[in-house]
Design goal:
Chain lengths: 74, 246, 362
Amino acid sequence: MNKKTTQIKIDKEKCKGCLLCLKVCPKQNVLERSKDLNKRGAQFIVIKHADECTGCALCAIMCPDCAIEIEENK
Amino acid sequence: MNKKFTKPKSMKDVTTHYCSGCGHGIIHRLICEVIDELDVRENTVAIAPVGCAVLAYDYWDFDTMEAAHGRTPAVATAVKRVLPDRLVFTYQGDGDLAAIGTAEIIHAGNRGENFSVIFVNNGVYGMTGGQMAPTTLLGQTTATSQFTRRAEKEGFPLKILEMMAILPGVVYLERTSLYSIKEILQTKKAIKKAFQSQLDKKGFSMVEVISPCPTYWGLSPVKAMERIEKEVVKEYPLGVVKELAG
Amino acid sequence: MKKRYLSTGNEACGEGAIRAGCRFYAGYPITPQNELIAYMSRRMEEVNGIFIQSESELSAINMVFGAAAAGVRAMTSSSSPGISLKQEGISYLAACELPAVIVNVMRGGPGLGNIAPSQSDYFQAVKGGGHGDYRLIVLAPATIQEMFDFTYESFALADKYRIPVMILADGMLGQMMEPLEFDEDIQPSGIVEKPWVMTGAKARPGGSIKSLFLKGDSLEQHNEALQEKYRNITNNEKRSETYKAAGADIIIVSYGTIYRIACSCVDKLRQNGIKAGAFRPITLWPFPSEEIKSTAKKNTQILVVEMSAGQMVEDVRLAIQDDERIKFLGRMGGGIPSEEEIVKEVNRLVGECRRGDPCVLS
């Protein structure tokens, strides 16, 4: 998966800031907590280093709120 | 751009009312993924409990009824008997199933009713404010076990699956969890197996999912998942409790 | 020496029971009375009483049956849907003449309803939600203080007449907080001998507590005895309260927290020159029929206000026997009648009969 074919999309309003995605991300540097709050007052997740993401989707599998989508350009 | 991972079709595109890090959200999605994969969305009738998941019909895009507290298996029995070719499942918490609905779940299993049960065991009553449940662990503090749960006063954590296993009409029982990707995928596999066994008309099936309740365990979502891994699964061992062949 | 607390109604109710010598409580979580079961789980331990969170409300009432039959002052509490589950057990308590206290912190119904306050369980409480000819003494508190006082008094009433007593509180009383005062060394009152308890037939023939009466007309005779008890209670235990009712042109009849709203409406109406008064039953059963009749004499108008589709209004009609004078204003599903709504309705009623034309809120 060397060529960048996948892309993470985070719905910041759906995210409740539970940080479970950070717990399971194998790369640990792709996502981070944002400083701002969404409408519900949650510190949502933002992308830190998109290029380190391998598109494995573990974060999306763990996410309780369907806040993460992985897109793939074929 | 096509989607490698996205919300299942059977799931409505809404934000849920569940607390941050609650396991209900994950289990809801897994059920919808299985229903999409089995392609039975239009053939499914679910029965939601009274408890945190009482609003499940706001999140699932398939027919869902709301039963009186604990009476979910009774409602499901009738629905499945009347509509034998539909996929019928109940979604129940530990208060709904293991407390007020104990009689209902045991007799539905004993009659071998051909529906599936998704039993969410998070060890407390969430909706009403974190009271002790039959599945609360010994030594766990809750709103109604403020001196921790003690065997001599509050009895022992109830093992529903192990109890149901002795009933001949019960064909498939598995306990899974959510604390890791592996466990989440195992939960999805178990749900699919339960639904498939129902579609194959084998009899009563139930999947118990050990789920976190960060709010009333007084832990962060990450710590709650760790508590399951380190503590809860010791009392509630994961794995297949019963699987009748054929 | 009196001490003042800031307390929720749920906790005031719990403490009232503890101070009345209640030493057995079985309950189940349901909003809006969760604070009561949590409070009892702690307080019963502190006073060496017995607390059980049962698997359902249905089993909780049957646990209270056992505790009462064993001679202990026993209580359970719940909210509307849970109280429905207890009806069979309540009928058995009444049939077996067992003293017990049942607290219902009412919520919006029917069905799962909501967790807003309501008074739509009036019929269930006073007309008998369970089977058979039976009655419960039903007390309707309006304040946090009364949640303590009425619960405390209910145990003495239950023991005196060997009857289940229900505290019927509207939902807001459960979680609302108000000052609460009681004598620190208050002791249980109305302690009576209970020769009938089941504690083991030591040097006496085995006794029984049961409600099966198969032989001949034994059940009819048993019912006669119950009715005699109910007549006795009706003659002795009616309680009600009035506010500026003397000589009033119109009486607002309500109970529970709505009475507090009615009283402020009376003050507002009197400022606008309308002679209004208020009446509230404190015992919903036995219903204070004579008292309401003497309060709202011949040509006095009556406006009954309830958080329901109109249930107590029927007992008012039965007492007054003059439907013409009785009007009803209600809010359902957890809605709370506001002062404005009540004042507007009174103006309309008084305006209608005084000037004959529809009245506009002044």
